[in-house]
Write a structure and sequence with these properties.
single chain; mainly alpha; 3 helices; 48% helix; elongated
């Protein structure tokens, strides 16, 4: 879990995405509280940029698990689909299933099996 959290490549499970979202909300609320109570607004904004990158990267990987482009996360309320819908079984164009279900078949081998 949480291998390359800032990378946009690969696939992640619902659990990792849900935990990522909770981490984002916790840090976001801490930053918002810090901005309201201090004069360190520029410093806190610099901290917020990697936080947004983290959330977008995790969302893109979750979209990949569903077999969609990472841009789908920009659809309003799509976050609920990412949290509750299961990923595609086996390999897809973004990599193997993070649960390991259906990964036994090599995607490069498809079509080469001839029944005699």
């Amino acid at each position: 879990m949480f291998k390359n959290p800032f990378s946009f490549n690969g696939r992640i499970r619902r659990t990792e995405y849900g935990i990522s979202y909770l981490i984002y909300m916790g840090v976001y609320l801490a930053i918002a509280y810090g901005m309201a109570s201090t004069d360190m607004n520029p410093v806190l904004l610099v901290v917020y940029i990697p936080l947004i990158w983290f959330l977008l990267a995790q969302g893109a990987k979750r979209c990949h698990d569903r077999g969609n482009s990472g841009w789908y996360q920009l659809i309003p309320l799509y976050v609920f689909w990412l949290v509750f819908a299961d990923g595609e079984v086996g390999h897809n164009e973004y990599g193997p299933n993070p649960k390991g279900i259906g990964n036994e078949i090599d995607p490069n081998d498809l079509g080469q099996h001839i029944v005699e």
